[in-house]
Amino acid sequence: MSKILVSGGTGYIGSHTVVELQNAGFEVAIIDSLANSQIDVIDHIEQITGKRPEFYQFDLKERHDTRAVLKELDNIDAVIHFAAYKSVGESVANPFKYYRNNLQSLMNMIDGMNRNHVRHMVLSSSCTVYGQPDVLPVTEQSPVKPADSPYGSTKQISEQIIQDAIRSGLDMNAIALRYFNPIGAHESAKIGELPVGEPNNLVPYITQSVAGVRGQLKVFGNDYNTPDGTPIRDYIHVVDLAKAHVVAIKRLLEGKNKANYEVFNLGTGTGNSVLEVIKTFESATGQNVNYAVTDRRAGDIEKVWADTTLANTELGWKAEKSLADALRSAWNWEKNYRNI
Ligand code: UD1
Predict the structure, then answer these.
(1) Which of 56, 142, 229, 273 is 20 to 30 A from 222 via CA?
(2) Domain assignments of the chain as residue spans, ordered by start
(3) Quick one: CATH architecture of 3-184+235-266?
(4) Can you give the pTM of this predicted structure?
(5) Distance from residue 307's CA to the centre of ligand 1 (Å)
(6) CA-CA-CA-CA torsion for 71, 73, 79, 82, nearest 10 degrees?
(7) Pocket residues for ligand 1 (CB within 6 Å)?
(8) Residue 177 in this model has a pLDDT that exceeds 90
């Protein structure tokens, strides 16, 4: 049985991926600083899968700890590196926090892998690297645009760090997965998205607003060049996304990768506007969303959605769940968490 080390494994996408890895028969060890997640996620993963992942709490910015844990683990076959900060606004206000955390952690992980002969890595990247694309849908060949935020820069530089490490002669295979907009929760409603403080992202804001934890949802602008004036994104169910990581890990472990470094877009291939998300949430859950249109949010792009051809053909992976499925699961998670 192969063993996968998952950094950031108690976080939103990380926890869903640990569940899918364990369901697929992998052993999992998690590293997480718990800076942005809760320890009881481990219990919930165990409740869902019947298996408790190993857990190490420390900060990957500590190089010696990282080396020591990788040495202690000894039998790791591959790493999925999620651990990173992800708030766009916070990164603008505090760029060094983002550069220090997101980049130092990745470099320490690669260093620890290299010392312990772990050769395979899947990296959590983002469609933010494309900025506002000139041509839609976005393929992996679409140009990487100058980043709008330090968060976006860290994703671009993270991809570059891995490529540079490989070019320097490190014996390493990596797959960078560029996520579009992950939403939703596991069907058990035992794990989901739990932002610290006020949510920045659309779907947790909707569910918390409907749950009465937040006030009215602000729709950030309806004067974009889109059919209903609100921005368009490619919203993908987090469980579909998690399954893609299992496929990527198998590709590396089975040596099916076609280059030392590969990149795949992970989206559904369909774009939906903010108003479409609200309407779909209402019809999928029977709940009304209280919202008002306000000014645009600085840094938001108008529209982006994925060309998923490469992931479909090369990985044999395709998003299966609908927007309604994802929104229903997000609401079920919120209800379960708040005991509604
Ligand atoms: C952003 C980042 C993305 C990052 C993700 C994770 C960009 C372009 N995208 O995604 O790289 O991985 O955050 O945090 O930087 N909206 C509202 N009201 C709200 C919240 C959002 O109307 O209260 C709208 C936004 O204007 C946007 C859409 O909902 O049109 C989606 O926003 P959000 O969920 O924050 O994701 P992105 O900004 O697309």
Answers:
(1) 142
(2) 3-184+235-266
(3) 3-Layer(aba) Sandwich (3.40)
(4) 0.98
(5) 19
(6) -100
(7) 86, 88, 126, 128, 152, 181, 200-202, 205, 217-220, 231, 233, 274, 297, 299-301
(8) yes
